[in-house]
Amino acid sequence: MGVIKDRFKEKADVLAAEIKDLLKEHGSKVIGEVQLAQIYQGMRGITGLVTETSLLDAQDGIRFRGYSIPELQEKLPKAEGGSEPLPEGLFHLMLVGELPTDADAQHVTSVWQRRSHVPNHVFATIEALPVTAHPMTQFVVAIMALQTESQFAKRYAAGMNKKEYWDAVFDDSMDLIARLPRVAAYIYRRKYKNGDHIQPNGLLDWAGNFAHMMGYQDESFKELMRLYMTIHADHEGGNVSAHTTHLVGSALSDPYLSYAAGMNGLAGPLHGLANQEVIKWIFELRENLNTDLPSKEQIAEYVKKTLSEGKVVPGYGHAVLRKTDPRFTAQMEFGKKHMPDDPLVQTVWNIYETVPPILQSLGKIKNPWPNVDAHSGALLVHFGMVEYEFYTVLFAVSRALGVLASLCWDRALGFPLERPKSVSTRLVKKWLKGEDEIWGD
User: Fold this and answer.
1) pTM across the whole model
2) What processes does the entry annotate via GO biological process terms (predicted)?
């Protein structure tokens, strides 16, 4: 086995033993209650999953293995001459649970470079789609085409012992993560650059090579990709893409099938598509106000008009967070360092100072603060990536790091098939009348 695989297996064996003891001693302990409203309203707030890679705090935001975004920016390895964290280091942290050394991060880079070959039939499958197809449609179809390479599927069909599931899932996950930048960049160049494709550069790190293959050679853009891939990588296990990947994986679907399912969830307007909705809204704001740099007063009037029409301000509010998303703050700091005079970026900052007080005055929202989607588009546009339909694909490539690290843990810990109980409204009404004391088996 490889170095990182060995370390992962050691950690997983220890935790599996701990969980076995926990369940033996405390398995019947009640950890919460469920209110009727929760089962009708998206199961918000119900504790029902275990995810080792990250934990979301309402005040501090996301913590990866206990480390906040600012701490990761300080402690994770950087590319030579760079100042943003390498996603390889974050993946190592999520998978192994320990801060990586520079050598650890370089090892992950090397492993992904070796595993990054994409078979020709995948490109042929992409080419069979209309070039007008949404980038996320092309991306998910490409992942399904890659599924022919699944070691888990082949080994399971050959009678693999269940104790080896984790090993095959690990290899599939590493292969898939390694290949995603090549696939995503191919889709980008096909759809937006007349099919003028750029070959990988084996000397670059994972995110830097992704930027290169998309056609962006600016070192600052490569730094943005490193930051972007890091801060979008995971957001605990209850969001749609993470939960879907976990759920489908619990059926022993291989990582390609599981990740593809999760990314279909990410493509939804209420999840990953939100980042393109934000930049569309800002473009519309500037067009309606006929200025590239609207004043805070103009923004306030436009926001009030938007809300009065029953619409929302995209990029503001979060299901869990109750303060400014640290991922927004990290991007704002990047903007101040690399593009402080950019009118679009300045508009994002002016919106940030304008929108929360307005939302607070309405008294109908628990979190009036910006989330990660409120800033990312403006940074990308600065470097010339104006094709906002593609932004969700960037999100998808990043999110692979978290959901596939978690999938490795799912199989290493032997998590079973997920199968919650559902009820009908008829049964709920009978129960409320005292006519039925049990909810079913």
Assistant:
1) 0.95
2) carbohydrate metabolic process; citrate metabolic process; tricarboxylic acid cycle
